[in-house]
Specification:
Elements: H1 4-10, H2 19-24, E1 43-47, H3 52-56, H4 59-68, E2 73-79, E3 94-98, H5 103-116, E4 120-123, H6 128-136, E5 141-145, E6 156-158, H7 161-165, H8 172-181, H9 199-211, E7 219-223, H10 235-247, E8 251-255, H11 261-270, E9 276-278, H12 283-292, E10 295-299, H13 302-309, E11 314-317, H14 323-326, E12 334-337, H15 358-361, H16 365-378
Parallel strand pairs: 1-2, 1-4, 2-3, 4-5, 5-6, 7-8, 7-10, 8-9, 10-11, 11-12
Helix pairs in contact: 4-8, 5-6, 9-12, 10-11, 10-16, 12-13
Length: 381
């Protein structure tokens, strides 16, 4: 990898960064020379559609962009249901919301993006909608990967992230950082994920805990639900983990979505400890509760990434997912617990090898409890 000095000297358009500032940031280097004159960039858009986890794992790229362009307006386009994940974030100036299933809304947003007059658009998603909106923005610099289906609609087409990093195995956060770094933004330090806690959410969570008379107690946040059966560790196992957590002096607080209430009920019924359960937290409240917790234990999910993004020690139970690609992206203590199987990783929508997904079902409670104990020994709770 070229040094930051070499890149600055070989790329006059990047010289708006003072050398003093550049060498203060020696640990963070671009992955290629700048592809345009960054000093002329006033408005920038990041497009990242889909899930909670995808949104959280975009924040390292936002960190890199914000520190490189402190005076540039940085917007991000997200699906409407995940927009609250970035409430209060200092990393972006505006979050643009797009409904999941509305062609009329997409046309309206395309016109809005064009009127805004972006200088640079990064397409971190690559799907048809994201690519159409990147092109419709009319931005002078539109950046996407060569493997995107409609890559020709970008005027800067990057090689694969594996080629950019010169490594065969990458995390999702690194794949996104590669596209940013390929255009001359310092990303080589691979920033951690980062979410903000809003005052409103913090007050709401504090009130909820006070109502349960646990506002002064150390808390373990438990998330026993998952999007797919291949990621769903059994409720009875979580109940046993909750008993062990309670025995170690942490109050278990279990969160699920309203439609997952049966998971919460099952855990409560099978646990001998007092369980505080919430089914109606907003995403900003989840962030605030995760930041308040001393420990997170849960399935591989967007909630796990949210906990990691507020620097909470995490134990995450993995089933079908690619651990190298989806593990917590954090500098704090964390452990992944999984069962090694030849069929891993897989698409995860269903198990193609067994009647039931053995990758998640075979993980014993004892291994998860051992991971919790290691984290508690290493962390001041």
């Amino acid at each position: 990898m070229n040094s930051l000095r070499q890149i600055i000297e070989s790329s006059p358009s990047a010289r708006h960064l003072s050398l003093a500032h550049a060498f203060e940031s020696e640990a963070a280097q671009p992955l290629a020379p700048a592809r345009w004159d960054w000093s002329s960039v006033r408005k920038l858009l990041v497009i990242r559609l889909r899930s909670i986890g995808d949104t959280v794992l975009t924040t390292p790229s936002l960190v890199a962009l914000r520190r490189f362009l402190p005076h540039t307006s940085i917007d991000i386009l997200l699906e409407d249901w995940v927009v609250p994940v970035l409430d209060g974030s200092p990393l972006v100036d505006r979050v643009i919301s797009i409904p999941r299933h509305s062609n009329a809304a997409r046309a309206r947003i395309a016109r809005e993006l064009h009127r805004t007059g972006y200088d640079v658009v990064y397409n971190l998603h690559g799907g048809t909608t994201a690519t159409f909106l990147a092109r419709a923005s009319g931005a002078r610099q539109r950046v996407g990967y060569a493997h995107y289906q409609y890559a020709r609609l970008h005027n800067h087409v990057a090689p694969s992230p594996q080629e950019i990093w010169s490594r065969p195995t990458l995390h999702s956060a690194e794949q996104q950082l590669a596209l940013i770094g390929w255009t001359g933004v310092p990303v080589s330090d691979r920033p951690a994920t980062k979410l903000a806690v809003t005052e409103k959410a913090a007050r709401s969570v504090a009130a909820r805990l006070a109502a349960q008379k646990i506002d002064r107690e150390p808390v373990a946040l438990i998330h026993p639900a998952a999007a797919f059966e291949t990621k769903q560790w059994p409720s009875e196992n979580f109940a046993r983990v909750i008993d062990e957590v309670a025995a170690r002096g942490l109050t278990p607080v279990v969160i699920v979505a309203p439609k997952e209430k049966q998971v919460l009920d099952s855990v409560v019924q099978q646990s001998s400890a007092r369980v505080i359960g919430f089914t109606d937290l907003s995403l900003p409240e989840v962030t605030a509760l995760a930041a308040r917790a001393q420990l997170f234990v849960g399935n591989d999910s967007g909630i796990a990434h949210m906990a990691a993004a507020v620097n909470t020690p995490c134990v995450v139970v993995f089933g079908s997912s690619n651990v190298a690609h989806w593990r917590p992206w954090t500098t704090n203590k964390n452990e992944v617990v999984r069962e090694e199987m030849k069929c891993q990783p897989c698409h995860g929508y269903f198990c193609a090898e067994f009647e039931t997904p053995q990758c998640i079902l075979r993980i014993p409670v004892e291994r998860v409890v051992a991971a919790i104990d290691r984290l508690m020994r290493e962390t001041v709770l």
